[in-house]
């Protein structure tokens, strides 16, 4: 009989990130579209966007992010792989099954996909926690992988992006523990959605921002009621980041005006550190909250073990959730400090090249096959489609 440990702590043991090899500078986009660059740099707080070519999708991004954190031992211990996404490549086969194969994870594992817009990864983390509670030796790989595409010359265009955050969930985690304090809210609304026949979403832009902020306020009020706390209990708040300016409005909305200036300054400093990566990557939908968390951890110099971080997750449609984590002793040893330098190695695209990449489609022949090229710079790539089957491979360097 399996013995369930009492007082078990469960949380994030490892965290990593992968994005595409191409970047679009928003200064260039603004000039081409004839808009004031400050509208993007100050109005949205964005600087650059990662752009994914045809050979890079949520599977390759997830495999790259997972590969960046896993050891061979982890691959033998993982018994669940969850890909959270709203940019799936197949209506039936889960991206997690492709990733399971690409990473060489031991066969006796559950692999599946989970979806609720940008909220999916938060649901995946909760499910992973419940699984480890029931099966304490298990490790779960959660991959928050998305490609945000709004369309050329749309209001959402400057808020696109591509990337995956990989998180390994286990007992006795080395980075942070979950505090078991989740409060979720569901509203049946149409603020942002993508029907099966459309490659880009339909968006009620202003309405979506109002819903994001109102869901934040009401979920936060309920959280405070249930857990009798205030923002004073947290060193930082990380937000879903469709674009950082909206999250800044969120912080201001829940910040108690009566707080001492010193506390407000700490929360603002940590907020600024949490948006550094998103400002250079753009929106990665369900991964963007966790990219914010990663950015905070890797760019803040004043966080310490025992600090609590609040997280606000929002997925259009809409489901939101407020919950918190606590840093553990030695968390900083699990982080990577050269990520900004890696982002700066991406190849800059002209706006014309970005548009070409945006509209590129696999040219399938009569048998449903196509050969891809130009993926040499990727870690994993979609290399061909054969009889309608997507074929992925690790790229040998
Ligand atoms: N200098 C500085 N700031 C300027 C400026 C200038 N020259 N010109 C405009 N601005 C400011 C505006 O004042 C505005 O700031 P405030 O919001 O503080 O007023 C900001 O730039 C944006 O300008 P607009 O209000 O004119 O809006 P826009 O046409 O750029 O569209 C948007 C904004 C509707 C959010 C659009 O980007 C969009 O549709 N995005 C996609 C939807 C989205 O991200 N929604 C978020 C909630 S939904 C969600 O969270 C899920 C998800 O990930 C999609």
Automatic annotation (TrEMBL):
Signal peptide: none annotated. Belongs to the thiolase-like superfamily. HMG-CoA synthase family. One of its GO terms (biological process) is acetyl-CoA metabolic process. It comes from Streptococcus peroris ATCC 700780. Transmembrane segments: none annotated. PANTHER family: 3-HYDROXY-3-METHYLGLUTARYL COENZYME A SYNTHASE (PTHR43323), HYDROXYMETHYLGLUTARYL-COA SYNTHASE (PTHR43323:SF2). This is Hydroxymethylglutaryl-CoA synthase. The gene is mvaS. (3S)-3-hydroxy-3-methylglutaryl-CoA binds at residues 36, 150, 249, 283. The active site is at 86 (proton donor/acceptor), 118 (acyl-thioester intermediate), 240 (proton donor/acceptor). Gene3D superfamilies: 3.40.47.10. Its EC number is 2.3.3.10. CDD domains: init_cond_enzymes.
């Amino acid at each position: 009989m399996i013995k369930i440990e009492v007082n078990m702590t469960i949380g994030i043991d490892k965290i990593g990130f992968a994005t595409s090899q191409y970047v679009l500078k928003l200064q260039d986009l603004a000039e081409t579209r004839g808009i004031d660059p400050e509208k993007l740099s100050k109005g949205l707080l964005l600087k650059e966007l990662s752009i994914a070519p045809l050979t890079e999708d949520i599977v390759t991004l997830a495999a790259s992010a997972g590969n960046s954190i896993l050891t061979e031992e982890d691959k033998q211990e993982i018994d669940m792989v969850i890909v959270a996404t709203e940019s799936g490549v197949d209506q039936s086969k889960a991206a997690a099954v492709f990733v399971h194969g690409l990473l060489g994870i031991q066969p006796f594992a559950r692999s599946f996909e989970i979806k609720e817009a940008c909220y999916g990864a938060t649901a995946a983390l909760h499910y992973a926690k419940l699984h480890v509670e029931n099966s304490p030796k298990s490790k779960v790989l959660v991959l928050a992988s998305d490609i945000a595409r709004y369309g050329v010359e749309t209001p959402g265009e400057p808020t696109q992006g591509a990337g995956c955050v990989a998180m390994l969930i286990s007992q006795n985690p080395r980075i942070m523990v979950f505090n078991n304090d989740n409060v979720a809210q569901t509203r049946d609304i149409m603020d942002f959605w993508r029907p099966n026949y459309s490659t880009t979403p339909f968006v009620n832009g202003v309405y979506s921002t109002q819903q994001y902020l109102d869901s934040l306020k009401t979920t936060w009020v309920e959280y405070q009621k249930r857990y009798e706390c205030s923002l004073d209990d947290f060193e930082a708040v990380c937000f879903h980041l469709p674009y950082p300016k909206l999250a800044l409005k969120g912080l201001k909305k829940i910040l108690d005006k009566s707080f001492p200036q010193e506390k407000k300054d700490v929360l603002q400093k940590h907020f600024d550190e949490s948006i550094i990566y998103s400002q250079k990557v753009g929106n990665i939908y369900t991964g963007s909250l966790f990219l914010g968390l990663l950015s905070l951890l890797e760019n803040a110099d004043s966080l310490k073990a025992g600090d609590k971080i609040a997280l606000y997750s929002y997925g259009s449609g809409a489901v939101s959730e407020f919950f918190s984590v606590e840093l553990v002793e030695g968390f900083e040893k699990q982080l990577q400090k050269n990520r900004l330098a890696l982002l700066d190695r991406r190849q800059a695209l002209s706006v014309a090249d970005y548009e070409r990449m945006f509209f590129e489609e696999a040219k399938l022949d009569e048998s449903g096959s196509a050969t891809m090229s130009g993926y040499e710079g990727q870690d994993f790539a979609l290399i061909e489609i054969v009889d309608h089957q997507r074929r992925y491979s690790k790229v040998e360097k």
